Amino acid sequence: METSRKKASLFFCIILAVLVALPAFPQASTSAVNGTVRDQSSAVIPGATVTLTNTATNVSATTTANQVGFFLFVGVVPGPYRITAETPGFQKFEGTLTVQVQQAAVVNITLNVGQTATEVSVHDVTPVVITDSPTLGHTLEQSRIEALPINGRALTSLLQTVPGMEGTRAFGLRQMSFDMVLDGATLTDRYSWNTVTPRQPGLDSVQEFRVENNSSSAKFSRPTSIVVTTKGGTNEIHGTLFETNRNSGYGVARRRQDTWKKASFLNRNEFGFSVGGPVYLPKIYNGKNKTFWFTSTEWYREISSLTLQTSLPTQAMRDGNLAGLTNAAGNPLTMYDPWSTDSVTWSRVPYPNNQLPKNRQSPLSKYLLQYTQLPTHPEVNGFAAPNYTGSWSPFNYQWTTSSRVDHRFSEKDSFYGRYTKGSYNRIGQIRNTPLNRLLADLGQEQAEELRQALHDFGMRQRGPAVA
After folding, report:
1. What is the CATH code for 20-122?
2. Which of 40, 325, 427, 449 has the fewest Cβ atoms within 10 Å of its own Cβ atom?
3. What's the fold here for domain 136-307+393-455?
4. In what helix (H) or strand (E) does residue 18 lie, and over which residues does it extend?
5. Are residues 292 and 405 in contact, defined by beta-carbon separation less than 8 angstroms?
């Protein structure tokens, strides 16, 4: 009967994986825990029962040490854990550890001879130095992410807290030479200069953030890899609310400004919430220790006022009169007719007196120029200095939401899904121009979803056992 249930569970996981299949991604967001069980004389203890329990969700997995005392847990979600080991004739071992993203934590356990009822507790067995991998990196846990004074709540802003990162340059490499992976799926847009998609989950939904800068794993396609895992629900309902406001009307910057200057207008609001816990439907379903949910939503609103200096075409230029045009050095500029190119000498005939005929002017250019301001200083050569000074009012409206569901079918089968959606609207308006109406509704909206089904096929000993 038990075998039938296991087969049914495996069949269900396979069907589920087929139905919700997405392009395959490396399991970069999960970790592993392994080690060897020995006695006080360093002899291996085969057959010891080892249990790994997530202290936040109470989800546990149990395995048995093989002939050489080795045990392995794969697909481990980063977070706090309790590990126990026991076997007849030895005292029970218990320790705690924190598993980081993409870490193969090695926990070697020593059992003391004694009564089974006696328990030996070790407070923390988290590996301090990783000795089984040449990869070097920098990890930001959830507590450090919450404590960092970051200007803005973009996921990519965490890069500036990592030694060796210079904007989008990683450790002396060219720009955008890193691969950002979120829950095993890449956020790097290969079709847009390897940039990171503008809408990522908010910081409240990030569990861990890791940058690998040396000997990055071969499963990534860039010299530097950035691995991010999102937060899942726990057995207890927890939530947060936040609101941050920056305004030019108050604060230290207002008091420190020069007396003869006025601070540029700025009003920025960042606000949102996050909440998660077990799935609980009264009288229908209790998902404690099994099914969990988490959701996070953040909004970003910024309005500012800046002085804009640029060069714009004069009325004479718009009419096609380019006579007297000079460059920044004062040398005259000659306009040539592109349709008069000689196929042998590749020479062109200049327009008479730098006058562009009406029939040679682009209708599209004429249309766009009517929505462009005239220079405020037409006497200034626009090639030498800005001939327009105006007020620029950029506004930035963004929001992002991310929801995640985790379900544990058995010790070997689990599933989680995440859905992220956001809107990004960033427009710079030049006041008192019809261009504002054209740009009023511009923006972009993006959505991303990820589903993964995991199955642990266990570990088999092949060949002779070597202690």
Report:
1. 2.60.40.10
2. 40
3. Ferric Hydroxamate Uptake Protein; Chain A, domain 1 (2.170.130)
4. helix 2-19
5. yes
Measured CA to CA, the distance from residue 161 to residue 228 in angstroms comes to 15
Q: Find tokens 């060219």 and name the residue.
A: 174
Q: How far is CA 280 from the centre of its chain?
A: 30
Q: For 94-139, what is each residue's pLDDT tens digit?
A: 999 988 887 888 899 999 887 655 666 666 776 656 666 666 777 8
Report d(CA 213, CA 115) in Å as an integer.
47
pLDDT tens track for 436-453:
544 444 555 666 666 666
**Distance (Å, rounded) from C-alpha 156 to C-alpha 163?**
14
Q: What is the DSSP letter of 431?
A: S
Residue 233: count other Cβ atoms within 10 Å of its Cβ: 23
How far is it, in rounded angstroms, from Cα 276 to Cα 205? Answer: 10
Q: Are strands 178-182 and 169-170 parallel, antiparallel or unpaired?
A: unpaired
The owner of tokens 């504002």 is 436
Tell me the per-residue pLDDT of 264-295, one tens digit each, with 9 for 90 and over: 788 999 999 999 999 999 989 998 989 999 99
Domain locations in the chain as residue ranges: 20-122, 136-307+393-455, 319-371
Residue in 256, 247, 378, 376 with CA at minimum distance from that of residue 307: 376
Read off φ and ψ for residue 160, nearest 5 degrees.
Answer: -70, -10
